[in-house]
């Protein structure tokens, strides 16, 4: 794969002010401190770069979305090369192990 074909999943642009180069935690902190009062629908830049993400889907509640979906770094838990069935198999196995 050419490095230009691999999406950047390390740094993100604020969907409100377009400030760039936030890591995931930095983007969340920035948005919560600088834009918490904003109500317009925006595309989550973290989700948009994921293989399953839709770069056109706007979140109705962006701050709730951040709190629910981005409490952890995806790189810790996700292999971007695995297909959906393999990921689902591992998630089910891991959830059974935790109970």
UniProtKB/TrEMBL annotation:
<dbReference type="GO" id="GO:0061630">
    <property type="term" value="F:ubiquitin protein ligase activity"/>
</dbReference>
<dbReference type="GO" id="GO:0006511">
    <property type="term" value="P:ubiquitin-dependent protein catabolic process"/>
</dbReference>
<dbReference type="InterPro" id="IPR051438">
    <property type="entry name" value="RNF_E3_ubiq-protein_ligase"/>
</dbReference>
<protein>
    <recommendedName>
        <fullName>Di19 zinc-binding domain-containing protein</fullName>
    </recommendedName>
</protein>
<dbReference type="GO" id="GO:0000209">
    <property type="term" value="P:protein polyubiquitination"/>
</dbReference>
<dbReference type="InterPro" id="IPR008598">
    <property type="entry name" value="Di19_Zn-bd"/>
</dbReference>
<feature type="domain" description="Di19 zinc-binding">
    <location>
        <begin position="10"/>
        <end position="70"/>
    </location>
</feature>
<dbReference type="Pfam" id="PF05605">
    <property type="entry name" value="zf-Di19"/>
</dbReference>
């Amino acid at each position: 794969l050419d490095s230009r074909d691999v999406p950047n999943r390390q740094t993100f642009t604020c969907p409100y002010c377009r400030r760039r180069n936030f890591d995931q935690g930095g983007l969340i902190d920035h948005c919560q401190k600088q834009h918490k009062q904003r109500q317009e629908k925006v595309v989550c830049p973290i989700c948009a770069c994921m293989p399953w993400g839709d770069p056109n889907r706007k979140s109705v509640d962006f701050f709730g979305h951040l709190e629910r979906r981005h409490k952890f770094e995806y790189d810790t838990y996700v292999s971007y090369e695995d297909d959906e069935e393999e990921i689902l198999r591992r998630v089910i196995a891991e959830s059974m192990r935790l109970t």
